[in-house]
Design goal:
This protein has four domains: about 110 residues, Cobalt-precorrin-4 Transmethylase, domain 1, CATH 3.40.1010.10; about 130 residues, Tetrapyrrole methylase, C-terminal domain (Methyltransferase, Cobalt-precorrin-4 Transmethylase, Domain 2); about 120 residues, Rossmann fold (3-Layer(aba) Sandwich); about 130 residues, Rossmann fold, CATH 3.40.50. It starts with a strand and ends with a helix. The longest helix is centred in the first third of the chain and has 13 residues. The mean pLDDT is about 90. About 35% of the residues lie in helices and about 20% in strands.
């Protein structure tokens, strides 16, 4: 059997946007992915085809000892596999990547190193601390705060570090912070030298502490700073109050659950994350194609008999257009039809396929669509509504009352999603959740079906709920809960604005 290859990939400091393009490319091709505690789990979305093996260690608790990790990499490569070894930060900066590479060389295994953004650079930058600055420091030193315990004596020359006038960045040093501060002072550094701690740098959990060399150990203990935290020592720390940008994000650290279907959740999730939120994507809905599209193809063959085509969702557009193309048809087939979209997102999806809707209501609910279409003379017209197999009947019922002849055309169906249920239950029971968001009535219904009786009413009563609009809110009320947040404009952007208002404490 031919030997495989191992890629030692730097996963960066935590922000998923800091993974290199080369790293992503390899993950998409990998057959085995071996990843660490500090490597963002979102990267695993790039490699659904791979065998996933977690070997991380947290607070000294090793899932797999280093020698066993080395053996694992060799074993998988000898099976002829492409192995992605995903390591937090950079594999060669206090990441023991060098040791793994030596083991691969000894075993005759081909390997490649893909550098990553090290937390030593990224975490201070996200905290507003430039490591070098013409007024304060012309050099920087990276030092381990946790040396190999088997060494007979420390390899750190404390006096040289102090005399260098460099910015000092210590990795893995929180437990040894008292001795680090003491050693620097004994070597001649001023007790008033500014020091910063950055915890979980570049992630939504980031928080910082600025102190002095004399007081930092005590203040870090009082404020509960633990690993992973980076220690920055030097005058550049004084720039933090001026240059801080990341920790000013309005939703930083807020734990928010997104219950939308996975196909639609990514945009909402990205917008929340850009505002600093820790987002748990827990789709309570799964959107799937129909098993039989014969009715849709019959409708496509008879489009000339309809006056209006009304789309009520992005998914409706996607699945309708997917089957339209399979039937060797395109936008010309809609030449004689007027087209309506229930909201801006649906309208944008139509525009992607070259259709600019003739009508988009000012409020994005079925009732408003009916009102607008009545003004456009819907009476007596034939209407086709491509939608989910199961959906609210308000729109077709009201259009029928207005004198239209309505045909409902199922183009997809939704079912209960199971994504990250255990993590969702953990957030609820540990009281860590700040907000649960709902973007439709079905997300509400499926949320309560998903958690079942595993969460008590008392625990649910402690949660904050956010609704995209009054119809979704009414569904929530049927379960006995009133949303603390309701969007004034029934869109994702409207919901985001309502969430920001809520956390700012405004009304």
């Amino acid at each position: 059997m031919s030997k495989g290859k191992v890629y030692l990939i730097g996963a960066g400091p935590g922000d998923p946007g800091l993974l290199t393009l080369r790293g992503k490319e390899i993950l998409e091709q990998a057959q085995v992915v071996v990843y660490d505690y500090l490597a963002n789990e979102e990267f695993l979305n790039f490699c659904p085809q791979a065998e996933i093996i977690y070997v991380g260690k947290k607070g000294g608790d090793h899932t797999l000892p280093q020698e066993k990790i080395n053996e694992l990499l060799v074993e998988k490569a000898r099976e002829g596999k492409v192995v992605a070894r995903l390591k937090g930060g950079d594999p060669y900066v206090f990441g023991r990547g060098g040791e793994e590479a030596e083991e691969l060389v000894e075993a005759g295994i081909e390997f490649e190193v893909v550098p990553g953004v090290t937390s030593a650079v990224a975490a201070p930058a996200y905290a507003g601390i430039p490591l070098t600055h013409r007024r304060f420091a012309s050099s920087v030193s990276f030092i381990t705060g946790h040396e190999d315990p088997k060494k007979p004596e420390s390899a750190i020359n404390w006096k040289a570090l102090v005399e260098s006038k460099s910015t000092l960045v210590f990795f893995m040093g929180v437990k040894n912070l008292p001795s680090i501060a003491s050693n620097l002072q004994q070597a001649g550094m001023s007790k008033d030298m500014p020091v910063a701690l950055v915890h979980w740098g570049t992630t939504c959990k980031q928080r910082s502490l600025v102190s002095t060399l004399e007081k930092v150990a005590q203040e870090a203990k009082e404020k509960g700073f633990k690993a992973p935290s980076l220690i920055v020592v030097g005058e550049v720390v004084t720039l933090k109050s001026t240059l801080d940008w990341f920790e000013k994000r309005p939703l930083l650290g807020k734990k928010i659950v997104v219950t939308r279907a996975r196909q639609q959740a990514s945009g909402f999730k990205q917008k929340l994350a850009a505002l600093g939120a820790c987002v748990l994507e827990c789709p309570t809905i799964e959107v799937v194609p129909l098993s039989d599209y014969s009715l849709l193809h019959q409708a496509l063959a008879n489009l000339e008999f309809y006056d209006w085509l009304i789309f009520t969702s992005v998914n409706g557009v996607k699945y309708f257009w997917q089957e339209l193309r399979k039937a060797n048809m395109d936008a010309r087939s809609l030449g004689g039809l007027l087209v309506a979209a229930i909201g801006p997102a649906t309208a944008q999806e139509l525009q992607k396929v070259g259709i600019y809707p003739d009508f988009v209501p000012s409020k994005y609910v079925a009732e408003e669509v009916v009102s607008g279409l009545l003004k456009l003379g819907i009476k007596g017209k034939r209407v086709l509504i491509p939608r989910a197999k199961k959906a609210r009947e308000v729109l077709p019922e009201e259009l029928n009352k207005a004198g239209a002849r309505v045909d409902i055309l199922p183009v997809y169906e939704t079912r209960l999603g199971q994504g990250k249920k255990e993590e969702l239950l953990s957030w609820i029971k540990e009281g860590e959740m700040d907000l649960v968001t709902f973007t439709s009535s079905s997300t509400v219904e499926n949320f309560f079906h998903l958690i079942g009786d595993e969460v008590s009413r008392e625990e649910l009563a402690k949660l904050n709920f956010a609704s995209i609009g009054p119809i979704t809110s009414n569904t929530l009320k049927k379960f006995g809960f009133t949303p603390q947040v309701e969007a004034k404009e029934y869109t994702i952007d409207g919901l985001l604005e309502a969430i920001l208002t809520f956390f700012r404490g405004e009304k």
